[in-house]
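Protein: Regulatory protein RecX
Species: Sedimentibacter saalensis
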Amino acid sequence: MKKITKIEYQKKNKDRFNIYLDDSYAFAVDMNVMIKYSLAKNMELDDDFISEILTAEEEMNAYNYAVNLLSRAPKSEKELKMKMQDKGYDVIFIENVIKKLREQRYIDDERYSEMFISSKINTSKDGRRKIKEALYNKGINKEIIDEKLSSVSEEEEIERAFLLAKKKLASMKEEDTRKKTLKLSNYLINKGFEYSTVKKVVSSLLKGDFDEFDQCY
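Structure follows.
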């Protein structure tokens, strides 16, 4: 058995404590770990109990790392897992932390998807196809993606594509209608709009047909 002979605040982090066993520094713990195990001066610890405390400290470290990442920017569950894996945390710790964060609503793929869609529509002006691909790559469930994107109507999609295309057209120097059609259409497709939307918008702006463009796609 070893006895806790001293507990002190860390100078640079008041939420962490240095633990001394038998007058020698042994380890540091987060405040939550210290409270959980009721660590106090003169408390005696056996090796198994010390091992349990250190395991809890490792998991708390993983939790704090995840919370810090989320405080900087929202992340999907998959993104957070990958960040933690890259940091080298044990798989069991990662799963426990993800479960806890899910219960606390710190991570929520449905809410994340709503925020992501809103941002891409209002800031990047991306089309539904590009947004859908991005969410899929972030590990969002297909059912969630389809449900959240269903709130974006075809009319809204066409209007957004029209405004982008109109602005792009004003900056184009080409005189040839065919070149304008191809360039404008490729621009909208790269922004993530469906072909049917692109065809309607470009035809409306250029008053032309899509025969030549159709042959390219």
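Remarks: Residues 210-217 have pLDDT under 50 and may be disordered.
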